[in-house]
Every structure is written in structure tokens, then in C-alpha cells.
Amino acid sequence: MADTWLIVGLGNPGPRYEATRHNVGQMVMDELAGRRREPFKQHKANARVAETWLRPGGAKLVIAKPNSFMNVSGGPVANLARFYGTAPERVIVVHDELDIPFDTVRLKIGGGHGGHNGVRDVAKALGTTEFARVRVGIGRPPGRQDPADWVLDPFSAQDRQTLPILISDAADAVEQIVEEGLLAAQQKHHAPKA
């Protein structure tokens, strides 16, 4: 399949985790599929998938939310990549990032996993780190709160006011990587906010 992109939002399954910081990647998938009014369907790769296009006549998008827990996301991602014949350079993983301030989106290809177990598992399953990441900043926990607890908490009331804009920005970044390439997307999303 020529220009097929696999876009994966990392998170944890089920209502208990739906609104947590760790699931911001899956919130971005909901936004991307929602923009195209495309429902998610169960896929045999242990994921929910929405198949659509960037725009009519444009690249095909496979928007996916693994049904597995975050730390074992690699299996569903690798299975989907195999199923759709998608090379790692056509895979975009969207995930939460503690080391980036809330309300900030950062983009990169390759490099380390930065302690993110979901990204680590995807890299292991794909056999490479050379895939694009849309890193959605959730910031570090205040005080002495354990980061492991922080990521499983829902966003604060204050953060929820800005969250739709952050999710929209991250979805825009995904679309721009597909349309214009990583460098153009970085130039736009890494620029200081006016």
C-alpha cells in the first residue's frame, strides 16, 4: 500500500484510564478520527482502528489505539505495521511526555525512549527507534508526587481548560508530518508561542 501512515496513540485501556494524563495519545487519536467522522473498529492486531485519508486523494491514515496496556504497546503496533505493510518511517507514535511542560508539543524521529516504557516497547517490537514521535507535554508532578501516580491521574481542572487546544495542536502536528515532513512540522510546533 503506497502512502499508508500508521498513527498510534499510546495509553491504557478501559474507562478507569480514559481521562488520565497517560492517555493523552489516545485523546489525540480521537481528535484525528473525529475530524474525519471515522469510527474506530476492533482489529485482530489487538487495537481499535479508524481507516481514513489525510484529505481526499491524500495519504491513507490508519489511526490506532492499542487495546493493550501502555507498557506492552509494542505487540499491537508491530502487528498493525505488518498487517498494513507500513515501514517504521511511516509510523507516528503519539504519547505523553513528563519532561516537556504541559501545553507543549515536541516532535522527533529516533533517539532514546527517555524512560517511557510504552515507547521502549514499541521500539523493541519494531526492531528500530527510527519512527516519528509526537510528544505531548504533561509536565512533572508537583512536590514529591511519584511520576507513576501522576501520569495515572486525570488532568487538573485548570489543565482541562487548555487540554482541547493541546490535543488539537498535537493532531495538527501529526497531519503536518504526513503532509510536509518532520522538519516543517518541527519548525512550526517548536517555534515560541506568540
Structural account:
With 194 residues, this protein is an alpha/beta fold. It has one domain: Peptidyl-tRNA hydrolase (Rossmann fold), CATH 3.40.50. Helices cover 36% and strands 21% of the residues. A 7-stranded mixed sheet has the order 2-3-4-1-5-7-6, sandwiched between helices. Helix 5 (157-180) runs antiparallel to helix 6 (182-189). The longest helix is centred in the C-terminal third of the chain and has 24 residues, at 157-180. The termini are far apart. 40% of the residues are buried. The model has no long low-confidence stretch (mean pLDDT 94).
CATH class: Alpha Beta
Q: List unreliable stretches of 5+ residues.
A: none
Rg from Cα? 15 Å
Task: Trace the largest sheet across and list its strands.
Answer: 2-3-4-1-5-7-6
Task: Summarize it.
By secondary structure, the protein is α/β, with parallel strands linked by helices.
Question: What keyword list fits this structure?
Answer:
single chain; 194 residues; alpha/beta; Rossmann fold; seven-stranded mixed β-sheet; 6 helices
Layout of SSEs?
Elements: E1 4-9, H1 24-35, E2 41-43, E3 47-53, E4 60-66, H2 74-84, E5 91-97, E6 105-109, H3 117-126, E7 132-137, H4 147-150, H5 157-180, H6 182-189
Parallel strand pairs: 1-4, 1-5, 5-7
Antiparallel strand pairs: 2-3, 3-4, 6-7
Helix pairs in contact: 1-5, 2-3, 5-6
